[in-house]
Amino acid sequence: MEITFLGTSSGVPTRTRNVSSVALRLPQRKEIWLFDCGEATQHQLLRSDLRTSQIRRIFITHMHGDHIFGLMGLLASCGLAGTVSQIDVYGPPTLDRYIASCLRWSVMRLPYKLQVHTVEPGEVFSDGEFTVTCRLLHHRVPAFGYRVTEGDRPGRFHVEKAQALGIPFGPLYGQLKQGKTITLEDGRTFDGRDFCDPPQRGRSMVYCTDTVFCDSAVELAQQADVLIHEATFSHQEANLAFARLHSTSTMAAQVAAFAQVKLLFLTHFSARYAPGNPVQVEDLLAEAQAIFPNTRLAQDFLHYAIPRDGQICAEMPPSDSPAAANIDTLEATLEPLEAQTVAADAKNAPAIAINRATRQQMQQKLGIDATTANAILERRRQQKFTCLGELERLYPQVDWSALNVLF
Ligand SMILES: [Zn+2]
Ligand SMILES: [Zn+2]
User: Fold this and answer.
1) How far apart are the CA of 67 and the centre of ligand 1, in A?
2) Is the bond into 66 cis (omega within 30 degrees of 0)?
């Protein structure tokens, strides 16, 4: 389960943050599930290393424009690409009418099956491997939080142990794998649980936006590996948060603490906290961390692979490190305005390029040896690179400046 943030701004896009969308990539089934689809989400997908053709399900939280205005464009482009056979869209009542109206009045015909599901609190989707549930949050219009839960996996079966005890091959091994007790013809009895490691706990991700603090978010997020929660406002703007039914940084942290999640990502920031303003997103992070220390800031294109063992993944730089924050600091320091956007794009292009490159390309274009290329590939396999600073820190011997020109 790999999360990529495609939009982390509330209401309107800023130069460095697009409006809401989060991609969940499920590598084992080559599928991407999107959560919200703000305007220009398809442009963000093109700038990421995700493949639009893998989008299989789209979950919409609510009908506000910053969460759905990119939906129709993306669905249309998926049709033109001709590589999609079915997309299922889930969302609140009126989403089906919105989609039907757009299709009708823009005379759009999709060459694939589009299934629109109106969700209600409870189970939304389940196929044995993954279950998606939702709860009604507390916003100005009906808004749903979603939880994706992966099923537990059976622990490893120690076949060599069974062989050593002389248990004959065949159906008995299947029964042992299932943890059942078997009796051999010679009268010996074995408990299958003695031959299997404990089951691997399935992972979970919860997405709560838009909402003011509410109990249903706490219930939905119980013990989740990752909670992505909106933090539109800083703590000192709590009055605004209550008036507009959005969350402050401290409300998000309280949900995380009450739900005992492992990791909290703050997202959906008001543009008033953009670089150069008196209060910035780093201040929201500090407020949240005072309540829930394991909090990080989401930023566009930030990638996080949820580890299987329930540990916090240490591969990603912490959100307040220079590497992760470099887009924001760039923007705060560079002039003129046009140069800022170009510089931010160019600065992180190498990270995107290296996430796509083959080993041969790396060796040729960067002039590095096979050992270094393999080390980079191995690191990439564990965790995609999110910014140039991370690459520079890990592999200072490589001249990264050539990458964005060459790939
Ligand atoms: Zn919103
Ligand atoms: Zn909203």
Assistant:
1) 6
2) no
Please report the beta strands in 151-221, taking only residues with DSSP state E, as ranges in sequence order: 181-183, 189-191, 204-208
pLDDT single digits (tens) 84-136: 999 999 999 999 999 999 999 999 999 999 999 999 999 999 998 999 999 99
Residue 50 in any domain: the answer is yes
Q: What angle do CA 186, 188, 194 make, to 5 degrees?
A: 145
Long-range contacts of the stretch 329-338 (C-beta < 8 A, 24+): 329/275, 331/15, 331/16, 331/274, 331/275, 331/276, 332/275, 332/276
Radius of gyration of the chain (CA): 23
At residue 117, the 3 state secondary structure works out as strand
Same domain, 14 and 115: yes
191 and 229 in a common domain: no
Same domain, 231 and 344: no
Tell me the sheet residues that pair with 296.
265
Model pLDDT for residues 326-360, shown as the tens digit of each residue: 334 333 333 333 333 334 445 556 676 777 777 87
d(CA 379, CA 318): 17
Q: How far is the CA of 9 from the centre of ligand 1 (A)?
A: 8
116 & 137 share domain:
yes
Whether 268 and 365 share a structural domain: no
Q: Are residues 189 and 210 in the same domain?
A: no
- In sequence order, the 6+-apart residues with CB closer than 8 A to the CB of 174 are none
- 385 and 241, same structural domain? no
Q: What are the catalytic residues?
A: 66
Confirm whether residue 66 is marked as ligand binding: yes
Q: Looking at this predicted complex, what is its ipTM?
A: 0.98
Domain that holds residue 402: 328-406
Work out how many domains the chain is built from and give that number.
3
Q: What is the C-alpha separation between 388 and 45, in angstroms, rounded?
A: 19
Q: Is residue 321 part of a domain?
A: no
Is 67 annotated to bind a ligand? Reply is: yes
CA of 31 to the centre of ligand 1 (A): 25
